[in-house]
Write a structure and sequence with these properties.
4-stranded antiparallel sheet; alpha+beta; 3-stranded antiparallel sheet; rod-shaped; 196 residues
């Protein structure tokens, strides 16, 4: 049937009459609605979810351990880099003043600003046994391995320009938490001859 108002077709009312207008009989058509069969067991079981969560937790813990190990190695690499930098600054100072700087605080403060832009401090937290190691004499008692300590040694004398007191030798104490390159874990000393 054409709907004159909307210009389209309208649905004819459903009739159960099996006779058409021209008198022919038609077989009724049975219309049924098809339904999807319901799946039993659709979704995940509790055991499957727990297994997936356990696997994710295991992978996360492995990644975290690797990340922490990388951070520890990076701190030890920085400690070695700091000592290499201090060695360079101290040798430049020695070349200028014919001696190493004096210090009563455990830091070679006279290096700033001409020979070093700043003095490094040991990265925290302490790794390995560095938190419990104390440096031996001549370092003051109670100085732990998680700090750097500079100690000038030998008989002091005046610098080449006569402006400051310098020393013929020094020891710069530091600690590594783990094996790093050729250096074992534990307390080490930087001297004019190199790192021990």
């Amino acid at each position: 049937m054409k709907d004159s108002k909307r210009g389209g077709f309208t649905q004819a009312p459903f009739s159960t009459n099996t006779n058409s207008r021209d008198g022919k009989n038609f077989e009724p058509i049975e219309i049924t609605k098809k339904t999807q069969p319901v799946k039993s067991g659709a979704g995940f079981t509790l055991i499957e979810l727990l297994v997936v969560i356990a696997i994710i937790a295991l992978l996360t813990s492995i990644a975290l351990i690797a990340f922490m190990s990388a951070r520890q190695k990076a701190r030890d690499a920085k400690r070695l880099s700091d000592m290499t930098q201090m060695n360079t600054g101290l040798e430049l100072y020695f070349a200028t003043y014919r001696g190493y700087p004096s210090s009563s605080t455990g830091l070679p403060s006279p290096l700033i600003p001409n020979f070093a832009s700043s003095l490094p401090s040991a990265p925290q937290p302490a790794d390995g046994s560095c938190g419990s190691i104390t440096y031996g004499a001549p370092v003051p008692a109670g100085t732990y391995g998680y700090t750097y300590y500079y100690y000038p040694s030998g008989t002091s004398y005046l610098s080449s320009d006569g402006s400051s007191t310098v020393y013929p030798d020094y020891a710069y104490y530091f600690c590594l938490g783990n094996q790093t390159g050729n250096f074992s874990a534990g307390s080490h000393i930087l001297t004019p001859e190199g790192m021990k």
